[in-house]
Every structure is written in structure tokens, then in C-alpha cells.
UniProtKB/TrEMBL annotation:
UniProt membrane topology term: Single-pass type I membrane protein
Protein's UniProt keywords contain Zinc-finger: no
EC number annotated for this UniProt entry: 3.1.4.46
Transmembrane segments: 270-294
PROSITE patterns: PROTEIN_KINASE_ATP (PS00107), PROTEIN_KINASE_DOM (PS50011), PROTEIN_KINASE_ST (PS00108)
The entry's keywords: ATP-binding, Glycoprotein, Hydrolase, Kinase, Membrane, Nucleotide-binding, Serine/threonine-protein kinase, Signal, Transferase, Transmembrane, Transmembrane helix
Organism per entry: Rosa chinensis
GO (cellular component) term, any one: membrane
Pfam families: GUB_WAK_bind (PF13947), Pkinase (PF00069)
Signal peptide: 1-22
Location of the protein in the cell: Membrane
Name this polypeptide is given: Putative glycerophosphodiester phosphodiesterase, protein kinase RLK-Pelle-LRK10L-2 family
Superkingdom of the organism of origin: Eukaryota
Top-level enzyme category: hydrolase
Length: 636
């Protein structure tokens, strides 16, 4: 049991009574290296902690990197790995806040699909009593509701609708369904619509409307974010106050605390304080020990129940599951877990050999007592009965108490995700060219088609992404990680889900918003399309700067294709350009907003293996939320 948390009160006392002197922190740089600039004459000033991408690293904090867009000279910034790029409208250095906005005018859609990557940024919350009052912009915690209705609600509030505090989000609504934003303390029965379901809860910005209504407001297209210099790593060891000196552009200054008077002797109050703290430590240690043992007892009871559930499943499916090994066998296979191949939230992967024939294998050792065993049962029950050249083969497993392991065939070239990420240091590799890339993507498509059509029951993977695609010695792809998979009949492929599952950025729209269709095998098609676009993005020219990414990359691909422009990709010969366009067109078909507009994986394979001339350019996937009818897909 970790004793450090229990000693915190005593450590606090020592620091309080005997303060330690800390050297002031001061970081500076030559003003010639970090001049204050604007992307355009009416744009915001760019100075510390913000840093232009081509400036030296000491000019700003890495989380505040910005660049000037190529065409409009707009100041652009990426808030997280999945957010895309946001234009910055204003920066208030004294108030320590800046405003970003969505150029398409649908900020809620972007807020649904990403989280801020750093605690440096926080929404600027104004504590107003109403949704909009006077001339202040406000940020409110709202609940998004999907309401089945033919009514058209207003996109702004007025004194007549103010008591209801609801507002329509038109850019997320479709015919027959209205998405309404309302405050969390209001119930569905308070609304003028009966059939509503909750989509999500998030903060939304509102702005007052200039007009006849005193308290009228509408959804804003922008968002204010704040930062605090106290959260910079450079200030973590400052015992006083840490400030940014904006007059010198990029200097962090640590101001020491007010000196304390030293004690010349032990006073009665000091002795009482020490005795009180020691008593508190003893009581805290005793309480923590009791709590720890109770928690472990509950944990052991839950694990026994989980193990009984796993054993029952294994007994019911003896004829379908692969070979079972003891945990001692697992230790021998891995030579005492000597060689680790990778690590993730699920546990660790080790290199090993089968005891019967010495075949190299990869052994995934799950964390002790991780979850309730559902992912383990899913993996063994699903992948254990699959035999396909493009699906990783499960050779065995182990389940003893809280210790569980899965044994797979070894993939010497790791995952597709790691391979495309490391291309920058492996430019000389001739094994990863456009022809091989097309073969890999076609193999993935055939594997997914097999899951959807080749088994007795349709298998929906729900986590198709590059890191779940393993590559064998000949770079043949194999789909892995079936922990989120679900089974359904081929006749009725609609899936009922209580919560979204998958990896952010690859999740289909209907998985988290029922307005856009039902969850089905078409959700895997969407994830496949996003995977293909990510792989294409890894083949971009290395000489390009981030300003080429100012537009959401899939949208940039679509604009280049529809306007007949060349894609900024590494192309070794003329045939590569045609392969790249083929892959891009197929991917854009797969990420159509409505599931009915996406092709089946059988049609995807046909497009990948057919003639280039037979390909049809898909409609714009990024305008799908405003169109009245879903588009027609290629023939299945």
C-alpha cells in the first residue's frame, strides 16, 4: 500500500514551518528570434505563450503553436489531435483568453467529437443567471436532445420562450428530427415536444441578438478559451507566484513568497500542532488500511464472479475456442516475460514461442482483474472461430483467477499505425510504396467483408483503425483486437447500443447521434474510410508545412478531387497518382454522413479491384447534414 498520500499532512507541516528558499525562474530569449507578428494586419498579435510554427522552440509553449493559413492569412491553431484546425479571431493577453470559431457555422458538431488535449485551456465560463442578458456573451452547460417532430423551432430565444430555455440547433437537425439545446435542470416534460432522447451534455456559447428583444440570444459560432500561466511546467517548482512578462514577449518570471519569520524556539502552540498532526497521520493510516482491505475484499469477490462467468462461457463453447494454457505455460512461453513488444491500456504484449512446435507468437497479457471479463469473452468467442488470411489468428488463451492472456500469431512488422507513423525515419524503405499500400488497404477491406458476410453471424468490429491492423512478414494486413465486437444475424443487422464504442475520430456519426441513421455494419465502413484517409495523409510530401493542413484533411482531399487539382502526396511514378485518387474516392464514399449512402464492403472491394474509369466521384460528405435525402451508393 502506498504510504505517500498518508504522509502529505506531515510534509505540509514541515514545509509550512521550515520554508525552503527557491531560486526565481527566469527564461528569456533574444527579441530578434521571437518578434511579435500578425498573420495579417487585422489579425491578433502573436507573442508568448503563442508561437509561430517556424519560430525557435523557446519563443512559446508547445501547446500554443499557431501558423498562418496559406490563402487567407488567418491565424490557425490545433486544440487537440482530433479537433482539426480552428481559426483564432482574437487574443486577450491581459485577460489570458482567446476566441476560436467554426468557419462552417456548426460549432456543436465539432465540440461533440473532440476533447481539449491540455489542461492549459479551459472554456471561459461567465456566470450569468440567464442564457443571454444585456450585452454579455455567456457559456452555458446545455443538454442536447434529439426530438422526433415535424415542428421547426427558433434558433434564438425571446421573452416568450425564455422560461423554457430551449433553442434549436439547425446544423445538427434533419427533416423529422430537431436537435434542441436546453439547460440540464429542465426535464423533457417541460418541453413542447413529447418524444425526445438525450444525445450529449456540453458547454455551448451564446451571444445576444441586437434587435427589439431585450433578452434575445442565439448560438454563437465561436468559443472563448482561457489559459493560466500557473499551469506551465516551467512554473511548477515556483514557491511564489509565476507571471508572464508580456513587455519582454517571452519571459516567465517567478516572484518569491513573502519571507516568514524563523522560530527561535519550540513554542507550546508548535508542540500542540506537531502532536495534532502526528495523531492525524496515525488515524489516517489506520482508516486507509481498513479501507484498502475492504476494497481488496470486494475486488476479490467481483473477480471470482467474473471468473465464474468466463468459465461458464468456455464450457458452453468448448468446440469453438482454441487451445487453453495455464498461466505457468504462459510464463515459460515468454521466458519469464523477458521481451516486451508493446504496451497499452489493456496490458502488455510479449514475444514468445509455442511449447509444441516453437512457432513464434505474440502474447497479450491483460491487466490483473481488468474490467468484468466481457472484452476477454468477446475476443475469445469472436476471433476464436474465424479463419481468414486478413484476420489475425488466435492460437490459444489462458484464464486463471484474475490473470488472463491471449496468444496470437506473431506479426513481425507490428501494426499499420506504427508503420505509417515512423515513415519519416524510413524513407529508404521500398516495401511501402503506393502499390503495396493499395494491396494492404484491399486486404483490410476483404477482411472486413469476411466479418460482415463470411461467417454464420455477421461480426461488427466497431474499432477499425491503423493500430488494430497488424502486418506480417510480407506486409499482408490482418485485423485484430475484437474486444468491442458485436454479433448479429445477417437478416437483421441493426444494432441496439446503450453507449458509443470505438476510437474518437473513427466513430461513425450514427453511433453517437441517432438522427443520422441506425447503427449497423455500415458503421465499420465509415471507420474503414477514415483509416484509408489517415494512411493517405501519411504519404504527404515531407517538404510541406502545416499550413497545407489548415482545412480538415478529408475535406481538402475532396476539394482537390472535385476541382481537378493534384494531391500533395509522394508519387514515385505516373501510376501512383491513379492509385492515390482511387483510394481517396473509395474513402470518400465510405465516410458519407448517412449510413444508407455508404457502400457495402463487397462494393468497396469491387471498387478497389476494378478499373479506375468505372469509379464514380461521390457527393460531398461534408454537406450531408444539410441535404434533404441520402445519396445513392455504388451497387453492392
Amino acid at each position: 500500500m502506498d504510504i505517500l498520500p498518508q504522509l502529505k499532512p506531515l510534509l505540509f507541516l514541515l514545509v509550512f514551518v521550515f520554508p525552503i528558499t527557491v531560486e526565481p525562474i527566469s527564461k528569456s530569449a533574444d527579441d530578434h528570434d521571437c518578434p511579435v507578428q500578425r498573420c495579417r494586419h487585422d489579425g491578433p498579435l502573436i507573442q508568448f505563450p503563442f508561437r509561430l510554427q517556424h519560430y525557435p522552440l523557446h519563443c512559446g509553449h508547445p501547446e500554443f503553436e499557431v501558423f498562418c493559413s496559406r490563402f487567407t492569412n488567418t491565424t490557425m491553431m490545433k486544440l487537440s489531435s482530433s479537433s482539426g484546425f480552428f481559426p483564432i479571431q482574437t487574443i486577450d493577453y491581459e485577460g489570458q483568453q482567446f476566441r476560436v470559431h467554426d468557419e462552417d457555422g456548426c460549432l456543436p458538431r465539432r465540440l461533440l467529437n473532440f476533447t481539449l488535449s491540455s489542461s492549459l485551456f479551459q472554456p471561459a465560463l461567465l456566470t450569468e443567471d440567464s442564457v443571454c442578458s444585456y450585452s454579455y456573451m455567456t457559456l452555458r452547460n446545455m443538454t442536447l436532445l434529439n426530438c422526433t417532430t415535424a415542428q421547426n423551432f427558433s434558433t434564438f430565444t425571446t421573452p416568450e420562450t425564455y422560461d423554457w430555455k430551449y433553442i434549436a440547433i439547425k446544423c445538427l437537425s434533419v427533416p423529422g428530427h430537431q436537435v434542441l439545446a436546453t439547460t440540464p435542470h429542465f426535464t423533457i416534460s417541460d418541453l413542447p415536444v413529447d418524444a425526445c432522447s438525450t444525445l450529449s451534455e456540453l458547454f455551448l456559447p451564446f451571444q445576444p441578438i441586437q434587435g427589439d428583444y431585450m433578452y434575445a440570444c442565439e448560438l454563437d459560432t465561436g468559443l472563448f478559451l482561457t489559459w493560466s500561466e500557473g499551469k506551465f511546467p516551467e512554473c511548477q517548482n515556483c514557491s511564489g507566484r509565476c507571471y508572464i512578462n508580456y513587455s519582454s514577449n517571452q519571459v516567465l518570471e517567478c516572484y518569491p513568497p513573502i519571507p516568514r519569520l524563523k522560530h527561535k524556539g519550540l513554542s507550546t502552540s508548535f508542540i500542540v500542532m506537531v502532536v495534532s498532526v502526528c495523531g492525524f497521520v496515525v488515524l489516517s493510516t489506520t482508516a486507509a488500511s481498513i479501507f484498502y482491505h475492504l476494497k481488496q475484499s470486494i475486488k476479490r469477490k467481483e473477480e471470482k464472479e467474473n471468473q465464474r462467468k468466463i468459465e461458464k462461457f468456455l464450457d458452453d463453447h468448448k468446440s469453438h475456442v482454441p487451445t487453453r494454457y495455464s498461466y505457468a505455460d504462459i510464463k515459460k512461453m515468454t521466458n519469464g516475460f523477458k521481451k516486451k513488444l508493446g504496451e497499452g491500456g489493456f496490458g502488455s504484449v510479449f514475444s514468445g514461442k509455442l511449447p509444441t512446435n516453437g512457432v513464434p507468437v505474440a502474447i497479450k497479457v491483460l491487466k490483473d482483474s481488468e474490467g468484468n471479463g466481457d472484452d476477454f469473452v468477446n475476443e475469445v468467442g469472436t476471433i476464436g472461430r474465424i479463419h481468414h488470411v486478413n484476420v489475425v489468428r488466435l492460437l490459444g488463451f489462458s484464464a486463471e483467477g484474475g490473470k488472463r492472456a491471449l496468444i496470437y500469431e506473431l506479426m513481425p512488422n507490428s501494426s499499420l499505425g506504427k508503420f505509417i507513423t515512423s515513415r519519416g525515419s524510413n524513407k529508404s524503405s521500398s516495401s511501402f510504396n503506393w502499390e503495396k499500400l493499395c494491396n494492404i488497404i484491399t486486404g483490410i477491406a476483404k477482411g472486413i467483408e469476411y466479418l460482415h458476410q463470411g461467417c454464420d453471424q455477421r461480426i461488427l468490429h466497431f474499432d477499425i483503425k491503423p493500430h488494430n491492423i497488424l502486418l506480417d512478414h510480407a506486409f499482408n494486413p490482418k485485423i485484430s483486437d475484437f474486444g468491442m465486437a458485436k454479433l448479429c444475424s445477417k437478416e437483421d443487422s441493426v444494432i441496439s447500443m446503450t453507449a458509443a464504442r470505438g476510437t474518437m475520430g473513427y466513430i461513425a456519426p450514427e453511433v453517437f447521434n441517432g438522427n443520422f441513421g441506425t447503427v449497423s455494419y455500415k458503421s465499420d465502413v465509415y471507420s474503414f474510410g477514415m483509416l484509408v484517409l489517415e494512411v493517405i495523409g501519411a504519404m504527404k510530401e515531407t517538404g510541406l508545412t502545416s499550413s497545407d493542413n489548415e482545412v480538415y484533411f478529408p475535406e481538402l482531399i475532396y476539394k482537390c478531387l472535385i476541382q481537378g487539382e493534384e494531391l500533395d502526396l509522394e508519387l514515385a511514378d505516373d501510376g501512383d497518382a491513379q492509385i492515390a485518387k482511387r483510394l481517396a474516392i473509395v474513402a470518400l464514399w465510405c465516410i458519407q454522413w448517412y449510413p444508407v449512402s455508404r457502400p457495402s464492403m463487397k462494393a468497396v472491394v469491387r471498387m478497389l479491384e476494378g478499373t479506375f474509369e468505372s469509379l464514380i466521384m461521390p457527393p460531398n460528405p461534408f454537406a450531408s447534414t444539410t441535404q434533404m435525402e441520402p445519396t445513392t451508393t455504388p451497387s453492392s
